[in-house]
UniProtKB/TrEMBL annotation:
The active site is at 55 (cysteine sulfenic acid (-soh) intermediate). The keyword Oxidoreductase applies. One of its GO terms (molecular function) is thioredoxin peroxidase activity. This is Glutathione-dependent peroxiredoxin. Residues 2-167 form the Thioredoxin domain. It is an enzyme of class 1 (oxidoreductase). PANTHER family: PEROXIREDOXIN, PEROXIREDOXIN-5, MITOCHONDRIAL. PROSITE patterns: THIOREDOXIN_2.
Amino acid sequence: MIKEGEKLPDATLFEYVEDDRAGCTIGPNSFDVREQTAGKRVVIFGLPGAFTPTCSAKHVPGYVERAEQLRAAGIDEIWCVSVNDAFVMGAWGRDQHTSGKVRMMADGSAAFTRALGLEQDLSGRGMGIRSQRYAMVVDDGVVKTLNVEAAGKFEVSDAASILATLR
């Protein structure tokens, strides 16, 4: 598992872009993790799946609600990463009203999640390989804070817990 003080792995994530912007097309776009975190402070939180109960009712809404507080504490971007495709993450972002607050980053093949060492096998529940629930603060590509939840818990990866580490 990745540790505090280590650089993020070389990986690509995908984001469904819904508006015209420089260098992007409407639809799924690929983004290099190291390039996207260079020179920035980013909160990355991972969760088991889009549209799942705790993720939709608590995890994502907490970051949406506290996005401005996190920015005021020096965070440049907030990313939600899940082992889903960019189309699903885009739809989930629309449902959760994340636009301008949380980037919904798809890790469809779990390559980033595996490189972090934060995967879990939920095949027995029909979900396949998914992400553990976690949150990290990344500064210029280096993990400064890493909070990984115990199985079935939601106590340390929420927005309030991350905000507390920044104060």
